[in-house]
Amino acid sequence: MRFRLCIIMYLLWIISACNQDIHICEEPTDVKLTIGFYHQIDSIQYRDTSLSIAYVQTLHHPPVWLIDSSVEHSISLPLNQLADSSGFIIQPDSVADADTILIYYTRQQKLLSPGCGFVTFFMIDTLRYTTHHIDSASIVNKSVINIHEEHIRLFY
Amino acid sequence: MKNIFVCFISLLIIQSGRAQQKTDSAIVAKDTSMAARPAQHDSVIVLAHDLRLGIDLSRIAMPFLQPGRRDAEVSADMQIIPNWYGVVELGYHQMQINKPDLFQYQSHGYFYRIGVDKNILPPGQNNHRHDIAYFGFRLGHAVLQQTVSSYHITDTVWGNVDGSIPRQTIQGLWLEFVAGLKIQIATYVDLGWSVRGRTLLNHPEQKTNVPPYVIPGFGKGSSRQAFDFNYSLFFRIPIFNSHYTLHHPASQHHTGNP
Fold first, then answer.
1. Chain B within 8 Å of A71 (Cβ-Cβ)?
2. Strand ranges (E), B57-188
3. Cβ contacts (< 8 Å) between B148 and chain A: which residues?
4. What's the confidence (pLDDT) of residue A21?
5. Is the predicted pLDDT of residue B258 greater than 80, yes or no?
6. Are B233 and B188 in contact (CB under 8 A)?
7. What global pTM score does this model have?
């Protein structure tokens, strides 16, 4: 009797495991460009730093304010899924001029899972920026598929 | 639903018991007959080459487990040489996911598997038995066509994204290990079950931005391994019989005391 009960419970478990629930999203769906702030010591050495930010806004009309009065080591910004480039204005505290950064990339929509639906993944092509306060910038990770990895470094 | 399931499990367990009983009686009969007859070097058996056609009954439950999904699977096997069976399995799969706020997905495809099974039950006298307990291997191949008629991505900063993805054709190739039981329940009618483990040999998800939800005949498209359980009804069609010679090693003669 116990053996038959074990068989029934085992098969019930198998069948319940087969029932893929398409209504639950278990994967992270946030895909954003992560920018880290660094201080250049010399041509080789650098250290991470925090930037006192007055605001960060999108470079389109009407602009959208993304960050307001914050001190951050890094920021995560959403890329434009309807175009192959995104522009942002970064205004540090206590300075007059803001810097503009332009990111050019290719996009691909991908089905994350039946429960989560589609997301857009980006592959960074080039980076342009003004140098009012930014010394230099580099792309450290071209593939933008989540929010956890650092993609661009700005050196001040 | 509960009664049907209990009946299904009971049939499964009864089959296992019947197979063991027939094995025991066959061994006893064989032992008795061997004691009465003198040792033989060769024996000729009649090998039945019946065509066994099967339909997977477990696929009938698929729409209840996964709404929007339809599957069908049939099989054909025949004994080639004693205890070795050649097997061909064919099937069809259809899937539809409708989530108006996210996406609408449709897919359909076909698959086939070819392989061999090895019967591990000892043969009965005159080879009248048709029950088999077996393990085997399959090579599976599937072709799937999928379409995303619409998808929607919410973006409060730059604007929402709406689009569609045209039809894509994807292929899957996998290796499969099978173990199971087929028991005669009536004249020319068998019932059987099998458990299967599969591993993908190619990477279909790399050639598309829409990983297949299900690879027909394999399972979940996002996994490289899959496990499955089948419960099938078989119909045996006698085709022809052949005579097969079994070669037995010569028996040793024991001499008296040295």
1. no
2. 69-81, 84-99, 103-119, 132-153, 161-186
3. 111, 118
4. 56
5. no
6. no
7. 0.72
